Amino acid sequence: AVVKSHDAMIAAAHTLLLQLEVPLESVLEAARLARAHGTRVVLNPAPARPLSSELLALVDLITPNQTEAELLTGVKVTDEASAIEAAARFHQMGIGEVMITLGSQGVYSSKGQQQALIPGFRVKAVDTTAAGDTFNGALLAAELAGADFDAAVRFAHGAAALSVTRFGAQSSIPSKQEVDAFLLEQTAQGH
Fold this sequence. Notes:
The protein is an alpha/beta fold and 191 residues long.
């Protein structure tokens, strides 16, 4: 009922980002409404749990980490080769775009004929609590601000890298200015 009361907002949105810290019935209803209105559905499947084929078929972009990808596909994701196999299984489920986050290894992205392992940044991690949420939010914020794919992923990597250097969830999420400064520093260092 709460999701249905926001039908107009979902219908008007470019993208709907979902995660699994709310009841699954709500996630499914939001995905159904988004699909019905042509709103792009992005799912960060965290915290990890089994999901129905009905929900997965409504997803345009899924962004699991290695643990979540394994739970949903049965493929233990440890490197690029296993990420390729897991992404293929997601595509078989009807998901057009897959981004499997691999921590400091980067993110494996698969969409149509475009597949790539995009390197991340090496930092001293102290708490990974909000890394996935930060990556997703930063990725979509950059996309919606007009960044091309590579720039959006680089921005998301930078934001997630900074977040793991701090303790906490919301308190670890960096500002745009902090991410921009971090990325300038990385560029100066040849990364």
